[in-house]
Amino acid sequence: MSALDPAAWGLHQAVIVFVVCVLAIALAGTRITRIVDQLADRTGIGEAAAGAVLLGASTSLGGVVLSVTAAWKGHPELAVSNAVGGIAVQTFFLAVADLTYRRANLEHAAASVPNLMQAALLLSLLSLILLTPSLPDVTLLGIHPVTPVLVVFYGYGIRLVRGAQEAPMWRPFMTRETREDRPDDTRRMPPLGRLWAEFAGLMVVMGVAGLLLEPAAVALAARTGLSHTVVGVLLTAVGTSIPELVTSVAAVRRGALTLAVGGIIGGNAFDTLFVAASDVGYRPGSVYHAMSADSRFWITLTLLMSCILIMGLIRRERYGIARIGMESAAILVLYGMGVVILVEGGVGL
Question: What is the CATH number of domain 7-169+192-343?
Fold first, then answer.
């Protein structure tokens, strides 16, 4: 029997594989943040764009491999819940990072046009995914027509983000707590070729870890009796998103606030493509129409949390409760509420 067949794994073996893969993703993801920060300065693309494309895509690689593998093996709910659960928990992590920045609320200090554009792109992509189950269940070569639309929309949105970075039509009001994206001294950085090589190597590590996480997650669900939604939202999504928590906190402490916020929001926008990729991998039909009520609930909850985040970036409250903004506090409460509802049996629809 194949070593990757979860039916052959006991609970302890599944737990060990799961923990090892999560640690590999966490360590590689933490290291890759510093590489992306240096690539942003060496290439001149800026922290917001680097956070959206390079950091968002690289730290999400383990998750996308897991979702596609799960869909391909006939586990659409694990694929989708891993995607939407990752977006939700990474928004939660941004509120956690706010707790670590003592000078002012993170929404105030990291306000920028590219970050607002990325957040609007995220809302658009999530709304399109939530809308699709209400559309006709039709496929072409097993792929729903919305899937290529998602990919094109994402590419167009990233182009708009880059344009907002290079030629913004308006700017946030500058205060002494506002932190702009200022490139570091590139003369002290490794050569560009070495940075790209290390970036590629770390992505391979996270991709392999994501591949091994899928059978571990299926085995955990089978051995514990947990649903694929619970495993996807609370285990694999959190596990593959640990780099976002570590890197956002590290970036905040290093003063790279735009990278921290852009990495989370940009990573969330990229993570919507998990669903598009899962639709390609899911051969029986449209993965959107295989989504459960719990997955739709988490998409809706994530939309609400993201809207609150945008309001925080626009409102820019300087200080809140215990140095955390009201918007970040609301995000923490909403995510906790979602976890309680899921553990208690889901939305029941």
Answer: 1.20.1420.30
